[in-house]
Amino acid sequence: MPVDRKTECLEDLRRRILTLDMPPGSALEETALCARYGMSRTPMREILQKLNGEGYVELSQNRGAKVASMDLGVMRVFFRTAPMIYAAISRLAAENRKSQDLALLRDVQDDFRDATNQSDTAKSAMLNHRFHLQIGYMARNPYLLPSLERMLIDHTRLSQTFYNPGSEDERGRIARAVEQHDALIAAIESCDGDAATQLSVDHWELSRDRLEQFVRPDPLPMDMLTKQDETHAV
Amino acid sequence: MPVDRKTECLEDLRRRILTLDMPPGSALEETALCARYGMSRTPMREILQKLNGEGYVELSQNRGAKVASMDLGVMRVFFRTAPMIYAAISRLAAENRKSQDLALLRDVQDDFRDATNQSDTAKSAMLNHRFHLQIGYMARNPYLLPSLERMLIDHTRLSQTFYNPGSEDERGRIARAVEQHDALIAAIESCDGDAATQLSVDHWELSRDRLEQFVRPDPLPMDMLTKQDETHAV
DNA sequence: CGCATACAATTTGTATACATAAGGTATGCA
DNA sequence: TGCATACCTTATGTATACAAATTGTATGCG
Hints:
The structure is a homodimer. Chain A has 10 helices and 3 strands. The first copy, chain A, is mainly α and about 230 residues long. A 3-stranded antiparallel β-sheet of chain A has the order 1-3-2. In chain A, β2 and β3 form a beta hairpin. At the A-B interface, α3, α4 and α7 of A face α3, α4 and α7 of B. Chain A binds a DNA duplex (30 and 30 nucleotides) through α3.
């Protein structure tokens, strides 16, 4: 009944998908979601369609919604496309930033740093997501933004293990990621497109190997996820 | 009542937006659309939301839908981003094409050539749209495709004058565009990514100057369109 | 025992009625 | 006459009832 109940629901579903609380391929039953979020089917269907437009869920005719899958074929495309998009967005952000943007970006970065210090995996991944999305907004390019958003969905889902410091090596990697964010902020602040581009590449290189391990973790890759393809995630 | 009445409506609305039959900024009243396409408000709202997700229309809270605007600020971004996206997509299409794709692409190109020979402006622009969208599908990159789709919306709307041969010079330009399509098909067929990239750049250069004229036609730019911001387009 | 078909149950799609919010108009007061 | 406020009109947002389609199950036949 509150006006922003829909917004809340939307953001919660995004969060649950990004944190793998709802694994790729899991079914989203309308009635169950309606009961959970206390609203009718009409607005819930609108939410599902919005999530579909954003790339979070896939819709099939008369067959309902399911969380966007992450099959291996697409993941190979992901690793090839990500550095390109991130580099382009970072350069544009450096060139088109406004000063208010920077304040927002710094706020997100502060929260992100805190989350990593607390070893809160899901929160770290979500705030990293918001950090890069904020850079996307600063780029002010409505044509590229949808691509960035789609990249970030899969990037964040893959990185759910990244911010879980299992070893000293991992801890160092996370610390370096935080530092790279700071450097990226500095480059964007000084409108240095070249530096921002280079830093985005460095940042990508840092996470790439770790992400690839998750995609192909010697035994078998996405099996853990694809096996659950038909589980209900509500 | 037929099942694909919705699909028909969706495609018709896309066409009318792309051909400027519905100018940028024009309001889309739900009840009027329902009457026109013979369906209830529920499915019509779903269509509007889908179009919103694709970038064809903009939605405002409690204020309905309107055709996506084309303001000058965004157009400057358009001209900078277009060659980048087109080049990337063309390369990927050459690298990832399947043979069935090529047959489809050739069919579209044949129809496109016919439309230009008939000097059918709207049809030419629409088939040019489908041609480049087909190349987008062939790239098999779900991350970049949304960017291409958004570029093509504005590109097609801008090009509505392009395929209207007002002079001998224009006619020649159109003929060259058709030839470039053929060359692009050949490059994609032979999986030559470099050639496809170069051809996409050439193709872009050909239309860029003409499109820029439309954006900034000496008197004033989008005024013709933005003035009609609140007209009803149903 | 295996498979196909018919039926039942569940889920999605559509229509309609109602609630709510925005915008315009008229009226009253300064 | 000008402006502010109250109200009325219109359009959007939500809920619910109904229709259609898909899936699972059971039964009958080969």
